[in-house]
Amino acid sequence: xxxxxxxxxxxxxxxxxxxxxxxxxxxxxxxxxxxxxxxxxxxxxxxxxxxxxxxxxxxxxxxxxxxxxxxxxxxxxxxxxxxxxxxxxxxxxxxxxxxxxxxxxxxxxxxxxxxxxxxxxxxxxxxxxxxxxxxxxxxxxxxxxxxxxxxxxxxxxxxxxxxxxxxxxxxxxxxxxxxxxxxxxxxxxxxxxxxxxxxxxxxxxxxxxxxxxxxxxxxxxxxxxxxxxxxxxxxxxxxxxxxxxxxxxxxxxxxxxxxxxxxxxxxxxxxxxxxxxxxxxxxxxxxxxxxxxxxxxxxxxxxxxxxxxxxxxxxxxxxxxxxxxxxxxxxxxxxxxxxxxxxxxxxxxxxxxxxxxxxxxxxxxxxxxxxxxxxxxxxxxxxxxxxxxxxxxxxxxxxxxxxxxxxxxxxxxxxxxxxxxxxxxxxxxxxxxxxxxxxxxxxxxxxxxxxxxxxxxxxxxxxxxxxxxxxxxxxxxxxxxxxxxxxxxxxxxxxxxxxxxxxxxxxxxxxxxxxxxxxxxxxxxxxxxxxxxxxxxxxxx
Length: 541
What we know:
Helix content is about 30%, strand content about 15%. The chain is α/β, with parallel strands linked by helices and about 550 residues long. The protein has one domain: Alkaline Phosphatase, subunit A (3-Layer(aba) Sandwich). The strands form six sheets. It has a ten-stranded mixed sheet. A four-stranded antiparallel sheet has the order 19-20-21-22, with helices on one face. Strands 3-16 form a two-stranded parallel ribbon. A hairpin with a 2-residue loop joins strand 20 (about 470-475) and strand 21.
C-alpha cells in the first residue's frame, strides 16, 4: 500500500490502519480567513474506464487505500449512473444537461453553463488537471474557454502515459520531446493538482477538477508498480469474479440475493484460456495503473490538509463509464498512437500474446475477460447501456457537510446531478443566458439533501443514448436496447439488478410506455437549436 509517490515500494506491508492514520491525520493549520460565507472547497476526481467493482471499497482486490479512506469517512452511492463513454459523461457532469444536447459538435454546447462558469461568480478559483476530451481552442471549448482559470493535461481522449498527445498547459501545446525521461502522466496529473492547491489563494474558495487517464488503455505502468501485483491474478478471471462478488455482498454494495451474471460468451473459462502468463500480466498492469492513481489522490488529500480547510472540502470521486472490453488491434491507428517511443524505438501496438504490456513501446488493452471482472456482477461493458456500461461508483466525502461516515446510499442518481448539487451548496447563481443566448435548462437534481440523509425529489426518468446503447430507467423499471440486436429488453431492477430476466413479453404495456417516453425525450433533444450527435437528420459528430 503506497500512501504517496515516495513511499509505495512493493515490499511495504504497512497495516491499513497505520496507513490511514498517516494519510488522514489532522493537520493543525489556521483556517482560511476572510473567505466569503465560508464556502466549501470542492474537488472533483474522475477516473477513466474503471468498472463498478475495481475499488477496494466497492469489493475489489486492487489496492486503493486513499479512495477507501475517503469512502470510510463519507458516503458511497450504489445506484449511481454515468454515460457509457468518456466524453459524453464529462459533458453531462460538467453541465448538468443530458449529453445529447451538452456534447455538441465535438465540444460543450455554447448555451450550456459549466461548473467552473457557475462557481466563478461566487469567487471560486477554478483549476483543472487531467483529461478534457470536450473540444479544444479551435472550437472555443477548451478548459480555459469554459471557465477554468488554469489547465494542465490532454485535450483529447486516449493517449500514451509516457508520451501523451495533445498535452497542454492552458492553451499552450507542450512538446513530448521536452518531457523528462521519467515522465508518467498519472503522476503529472497528480503533481500539477498538488501544485495548484499549494499555490491557490487561501482567501478564495477552490474548485479543482482532476481527471485521470487511468485506467483507460493503453496498459502503461511503472515497473515497480507492476511488480507489486506479480502473481496476484494467477487465479484467473472466473475465481476473481466470484471473490469480488462475495466481497461486494459482505460490504453491502449489492444485496445478498443479487445474482452474478454469467461469464460473457466471448470469454472462455480460465482453464481453457491461452497465453495465461500474458493474460495475467494484462491485469497486473491494469491494477498498477489504478494503484498509481490512488497514490496520487493520497498526495492531493495531503495538499488539501496543508491548505487548512479539509473539514470543509467536498471531495467527489466518480468514473466515466464501466470497464472497457475492447481488444486493441495491432493494425489500429490514431493520433493518440505515436509511431516511435521518445528514444526512437518503433512502437509495437496491439494485443499480441507474449508481448508483455506495461512499457512505453507497447499499446495494449486488458480485453473481455478482465473487463468482465471489473464490471462484476453486471452484464456488458463500456459502450453499452446495460448496467455494466453505466452503473459506476460515486464517493462523497465532506466532514462538515455529510452526515454519513462510511454509509451507503441507494439513491438513484446520475452525473447530471453534480452541477446542481454544487450550485445548491455554494449558493451560486446560474446565469439565464450563455453564449449570448438563453441558457439550456439543467436536467440534474441536487444531491445536497441526500448528503444529510434527507429525501429528495429525484429523477422521474433517467435517459441514455450513445454508441451501442439506448435505455430509460424509471423507478424499478429499466428498458434497454443493444442497438445491434435492436430488440428492447425490460428489467425489474428491484428483483433483477443484473438484467437476466427480460420481461418485455410479460409486461408489454410497461415496455411500450417506457419506449414512448424514451422516444419523446430523444426527439426533444433533437429540437435544441443546433445539431445533436446521433440524431437522425442532423449533422452533429
